[in-house]
Amino acid sequence: MAAKLSILVSMVIICSIACAENQNQFTYNGFNGASLHLDGVAKIHPNGLLQLTNTSYQQIGRAFFPMPITFNTSSLSNDTDSLLFSSTFVFAIVPEFPELGGHGITFIISPSMEFEGAVASQYLGLFNTTTNGLSTNHVFAVELDTIKSPEFNDIDGNHVGIDVNSLQSYASATASYYSDREGDNKTLKLISGKPIQLWVDYDEKEMLLNVTVAPLGTRKPWLPLLSARLDLSKTLVESMYVGFSASTGSMASDQYILGWSFNKSGQLQDLDYTKLPPPPPPRRRSRWKPDFRIVIPLVITSLLVMTLIGAAYKMWMKKYEEVREEWEQEYGPQRFSYRDLYKATKGFKGKELLGIGGFGEVYRGILPSSNEQVAVKRVSHSSKQGMKEFIAEIASMGRLRHRNLVQLLGYCRRQGELLLVYDFMANGSLDKFLFTNEKTNLNWSQRVQILKGVASALVYLHEEWDQVVIHRDIKASNILLDAQLNGRLGDFGLAKFYDHGANPQTTRLVGTIGYIAPELARTGKPTTSSDVFAFGNLMLEIACGRRPFEPGRPPEEIILVDWVQEFWKSGMIVETSDPRLEGEYVGEEMELILNLGLLCANPAPATRPSMRAVVQYLDGNVMLPKIFLDDSTHSLIGVPLPNQKSQKDTPYPVSGDNISMNSLSSSESILSYGR
Ligand SMILES: *[C@@H]1O[C@H](CO)[C@@H](O)[C@H](O)[C@H]1NC(C)=O
Ligand SMILES: *[C@@H]1O[C@H](CO)[C@@H](O)[C@H](O)[C@H]1NC(C)=O
Ligand SMILES: *[C@@H]1O[C@H](CO)[C@@H](O)[C@H](O)[C@H]1NC(C)=O
Ligand SMILES: *[C@@H]1O[C@H](CO)[C@@H](O)[C@H](O)[C@H]1NC(C)=O
Ligand SMILES: *[C@@H]1O[C@H](CO)[C@@H](O)[C@H](O)[C@H]1NC(C)=O
Ligand SMILES: *[C@@H]1O[C@H](CO)[C@@H](O)[C@H](O)[C@H]1NC(C)=O
Ligand SMILES: *[C@@H]1O[C@H](CO)[C@@H](O)[C@H](O)[C@H]1NC(C)=O
User: Which ligand has the shortest distance to the CA of 225?
Assistant: First the structure.
């Protein structure tokens, strides 16, 4: 009873201080008397200033609103409007030395106020090398990062980033704001010491996350700095804490929060700027005044010595030689040094070899700078021609970010050799699980999860990114499995980038036999539809536990699609399921995946669904159309069920050219799905 009463009392106190009607919203105009949960070096000054870190090195400071916030992720609720949350706060970062501060502040939403094993410096008090990137973190953060950390692909040392479970930002941009008055973007210096306001707004229905910054006193710019499509439903759990984490490394700043407002479901109240504590005192100028009479000769001599050493080093260290050209400068952050990669892979030792693909060998490595595990792919190339375009594409690939893509971290170029550095995938490639006894069998739900993951990555590549990315080599050996057995699409060695709406160009035919769509073999034009063809084959492979093309089999079984189609004709499609599953699968899902696989891998490109439609079918949001076999073209046609909403909602292309309703009525067999 007493305990209950004291909780009640403390809640009343919190509410009165936070001026909030309930726990899912609060406003702090200064933190005087606020009962925040403080951690590390964080403290509240008597004037209400919340200081997360001071200039001591390698420190972490955190502050949380003490009550959990309820995020109902189970359904899209019919709330007054679709806003999941919004927050605004005012911060100030005063570097230890002018121009030299570290490391940054993050606004976090996390299932816990404890961050076990988290380290300071570039990890900002959130993660460590092991925990960074784990989907089990359930941590969402907006980072104000004042140091460029190459291992996280940071764009610069003055950026704002959206982080989901990882410090490798989902999206980031140099701190700047859109000045409504001048109609122009203005750069903001995070470590200016001046108060800056940040807004985070997330719209759950639109899955749109906006981050906006502006100097304190400026109205919220109507154009956000970052506006990213982001599905947080998998990240946020029902009960989450909101707060801040900041860290220092071997460089440090005083990092402050002046005021903060949060609303789980509703419009934010504006902060009352008149009540905010005074901004932090400016740091006294550094006592050390360089004496240029000494410094200049010193710099010149050391430069000279360094040049000499550099020249000698170059001669001796021929084995680390790389090719770098001026135009590569713009892709700077993604460039790794050969030396690091050489060390990481212990000199490309045979023991570190993970596999050999059509385009080169892949080695396991541990980056010396961060202890991060990576996979390094060595591709030999001879021609200088096209290298610039190739590197530009690599730079584009490095910007692709999806949790079902193997992240390309960077590259290195040498004479006759190109090295591509990727995230390390703990479980290796899918084909090892399906077709060899090297790895344990995958159960049905794991298989479905892998397919759904890869499908969503393909929607991202085909439709959601700035450009259309055609992967061109989707197959089981290019699907890599991370520690949680999530399918991640890898190996962009062949990918092609096109502007949306552009006409794909004919290219040298690449791909893998059994996955190459017939029209691609004819025209040489890769399209999103030829990717869908390969994905269809992948679906059949996963369901049947068979490769798409097995020349060793009896003639009618060599081509997987044809074999499955024969069973489909006789209404026994489920008979083709992988015997290794021993009947342990969900019958409806098996039927859906086999049918959908056939539809995707059918010879007429126009009748294949788009990847977005595939995802909708897989998720069960849209019913798979009835499938007919068209006698004249020997291709399958899907006709949306009459009760489905509209063509737009079911982006299923009904081929209009050569198929009339007459030919449908004479179709050989009718298969209805899901009834
Ligand atoms: C930073 O704060 C910690 C803990 O309050 C204190 O021990 C340390 O002396 C402070 N460092 C500086 C540089 O003020
Ligand atoms: C979450 O939403 C669902 C569906 O609207 C509802 O049934 C459930 O009670 C909600 N949970 C909470 C904790 O509000
Ligand atoms: C939301 O409202 C619409 C109509 O107002 C209703 O059809 C739908 O079932 C509601 N959804 C939920 C999750 O309550
Ligand atoms: C990171 O933190 C986790 C959780 O405390 C711990 O198990 C792991 O050993 C840590 N990793 C490193 C490299 O310190
Ligand atoms: C300003 O920045 C935004 C977001 O980064 C960008 O979309 C916009 O085009 C920029 N505007 C100008 C005038 O540079
Ligand atoms: C995010 O910004 C865009 C404009 O870029 C705007 O249309 C959208 O409504 C904003 N969403 C939220 C949740 O603020
Ligand atoms: C949160 O939103 C509700 C509804 O718009 C509003 O009444 C309330 O004042 C807001 N609270 C805060 C702290 O902004």
Answer: 5
Q: Is 155 left (phi over 0), alpha (psi -120 to 50) or beta?
A: alpha
Q: Which domains does the chain have, with CATH numbers?
A: 14-275 (2.60.120.200), 326-423 (3.30.200.20), 430-663 (1.10.510.10)
Number of other CB atoms surrounding residue 524 within 10 Å? 14
- Beta carbons of 264 and 80 less than 8 angstroms apart: no
Q: Which is nearest to 479 in space by CA: 489, 469, 492?
A: 489
| Residue type present at position 158 | N
Q: Report CA(271)–ligand 7 centroid distance (Å).
A: 12
Known binder of ligand: residue 377? yes
- The whole-number average pLDDT for the span 314-325 is 64
DSSP string for residues in 600-669: HT-S-GGGSPPHHHHHHHHHTSSPPPEEEEETTTTEEEEE--TTS--TTTS------SS--HHHHHT-S-
How far out from the chain centre does Cα 237 lie?
19
Instruction: Note the pLDDT tens digit of each residue in 499-540.
Output: 666 666 555 556 666 777 878 777 778 889 999 999 999 999
312: how many CB neighbours lie within 10 A of its CB?
A: 10
Is beta strand 43-44 parallel, antiparallel or unpaired with respect to 239-247?
unpaired
Between CA 468 and CA 466 the distance in angstroms is: 7
Tell me which DSSP letter residue 107 carries. E
Strands 635-639 and 479-481 turn out to be unpaired
H-helix or E-strand containing 409?
A: strand 408-414
Residues facing 140 on adjacent strands: 109, 164
| Cβ of residue 41 lying under 6 Å from some atom of ligand 1 | yes
Give, in order, the Cα–Cα distances in Å from 227 to each of 145, 207, 293, 535. 18, 10, 50, 30
How much distance in Å is there from the Cα of 635 to the middle of ligand 4?
54
- Work out which ligand 4 atom sits closest to the CA atom of 131: 1
Measuring from each residue's beta carbon to the nearest atom of ligand 5, which residues come in under 6 Å?
Answer: 173, 178, 184-185, 223, 225
> Measuring from each residue's beta carbon to the nearest atom of ligand 2, which residues come in under 6 Å?
70, 72, 74-75, 77
Q: Which atom of ligand 1 is nearest to the CA of 43?
A: 5
Of 1-10, 108-117, 154-163, 430-439, the poorest mean pLDDT is in 1-10
Count CB-CB contacts under 10 A for residue 548: 24
What pLDDT is stored for residue 254 in this prediction? Answer: 94
Cα(378)–Cα(375) distance, integer angstroms: 10
Of all protein residues, whose CA lies closest to atom 9 belonging to ligand 3? Answer: 78
For ligand 7, atom 13, the nearest C-alpha belongs to 26
CB-based burial, 103-133: b 16+ in 10 Å, e otherwise: bbbbbbbbbebebeebbbbbbbbbbebebbb
Q: Select from 73, 74, 77, 78 the residue to mutate for testing ligand 3; criterion: most ligand atoms less than 8 Å from CB.
A: 78
Catalytic residues: 473
Q: Which amino acid is at 247?
A: S
The pair of structure tokens assigned to 640 is 């949306």
Atom of ligand 6 nearest to the CA of 210: 1
> What are the φ/ψ torsions at residue 247 (nearest 5 degrees)?
-145, 165
Q: Which atom of ligand 3 is nearest to the CA of 75?
A: 13
